[in-house]
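User:
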Amino acid sequence: MTPSGTASAPASAPLFVALALLLLLAAFFAGSETALMSLNRYRLRHAAKAGQRGARLAETLLAKPDRLIGLILLLSTVVNVVTPTIVGIIAFRLGGGVLVAAGVVALTFVMLIFCEVAPKTYAALHPERLAILAAYVYTPLLRGLYPFVWATNLLANGALRALGTSPPQSSHALSGEELRTVVAEAGAMIPQRHRQMLVGILDLEKVTVEDIMVPRTEIVGIDLEDDWDDIVEQLRQSQHTRLPVYEGEIDRIVGVVHLKRIVQVLARGRLDREALIEAATAHDTYFVPSGTPLHTQLFNFQRAKRRLAFVVDEYGDIQGLVTLEDILEEIVGEFTTDPATMMHQDVRSEADGSFVVNAATTVRALNRSMRWALPIDGPKTLNGLILEFLETIPEPGTTLRVAGYTLEVLQTADNAIKTVRVRPPAARGAPPLETG
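Assistant: Predicted structure:
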């Protein structure tokens, strides 16, 4: 009797059903593994907090990835062992040993295409759909097969330790740079304005008060050694609500006067030097080190209930002044200063497309207001940026190119550059530095 009789076909029907079921299971295991591992964990966490049961189950499974992988591989191994056996039996019954080799080849092709590539590709494109369904399937299976999964993981983790590798831990914390990338790639999900604000918050830890402070040479204050009529006129014309009060030079600071406290006395003409000094010394002067990060200083302002601080170096000399508004502008952009005012005071547009800039202006302020991209990882002012590149005080007429921007020194005085003509790059690809 040959193995390929007609009675063998009905007898093989249950085997064909079992084979089809095993192939479906193999495809499900392969696809669900890819779906669960490629799932967006933060979106999953949001769905779980919103009350979706499937999301909560998936999050619980992914909290122990070694157990989940052990379960999936255990089931896949059983399927991958049983499936070739059934194919061999079917092939032998239908055609004897001749069809066994052909059955193995056909099974390899079917499992590669329909049980690996296709389901994993679908799972990578639609991870949420398959992952939630898989969570309902794997949760009871993990409970029922836990002893086998535990034994499998015990052996696997032991092998990892022998190789000097710790067992896998579920950790999806993002660094600041990674979070910045997530925000930048959010696209239409987060408006551009909001993305800029979020990136500004993340950048606070990389920027110090020295980067945004008003340099000491530009601090507007009241010199008690000036004529009293000039002091009164300065108080009346001041555009600031708080003014430093000092004697002769800013390092001899007396305090900070809040115009709201003296405006009525000033209007009545009863203000004198003693009353001004008393108002300025009503609160202790607030000093901060020059290297303080902005996010730290923001909390310091909140804790001390202050809005203004003097930035000092390691010798205690005042280097500049920083306000709460300066820090907030790093997050939300200019709001206390009119950009047009800055253009009038520090930047003047020329007919040829260039700009004449006050060299004492900070590079960060120029980048923010003019949408430029001058280097900010070095000197704080445009004057310092040019001096760092040239390593000498240049003569008027000296030109250089920094990050594609052509800078021409127009005026120097008192060992510093006063004004610079800036020509923004017309095209990309300019060399980083040229002098002439």
